[in-house]
Write a structure and sequence with these properties.
single chain, alpha/beta, Rossmann fold, 5 strands
């Protein structure tokens, strides 16, 4: 007696939706700003630049980025108020804020932390150690 066996193999369809994490970046100084855009993109981030500090809270709420990066020496808008607004909104309070400054902006670091920055670093260190600093900023307490 011969048995005819018909095997039908179904390969399950798997939909893979790969989304690049969003990083909001506020800067005025071309260096390190443009370098950060390139380095973040190289690390797999989708980068959205922000025109003024005053736009940060609304864009953070609307885009739900993985993190916000802000140049403390940028003068467009009230950065401290933007940090406080991000921290005050329950929908965005968890978003890490990574603030950076140039060699002449070190005095701004303490004010940035008081306003709600998660981590404050000098721009040269940020560029040289970006993956490690990002990991540190994204750590969950």
């Amino acid at each position: 007696m011969t048995q005819n066996v018909i095997a039908i193999l179904f390969e399950p369809l798997t939909l893979i939706c790969v989304t690049q994490p969003l990083a909001l970046l506020f800067y005025e100084r071309l260096l390190p700003g443009t370098q950060l855009v390139n380095r973040l993109q190289d690390l797999g981030y989708r980068v959205q630049t922000v025109a003024t500090a005053d736009d940060l809270p609304a864009l953070t709420s609307a885009g739900l980025p993985l993190l916000v990066l802000a140049d403390l020496q940028a003068g467009r808008g009230d950065l401290w108020r933007a940090f406080r607004a991000i921290r005050a909104d329950p929908a965005t309070a968890h978003v890490p804020i990574l603030a950076f400054y140039g060699s002449e902006g070190a005095a701004l670091a303490a004010s940035a932390q008081e306003a709600g920055a998660t981590l404050v670093v000098q721009d040269t260190a940020l560029l040289n150690h970006l993956p490690q600093i990002l990991n540190r900023a994204l750590e969950v307490d």
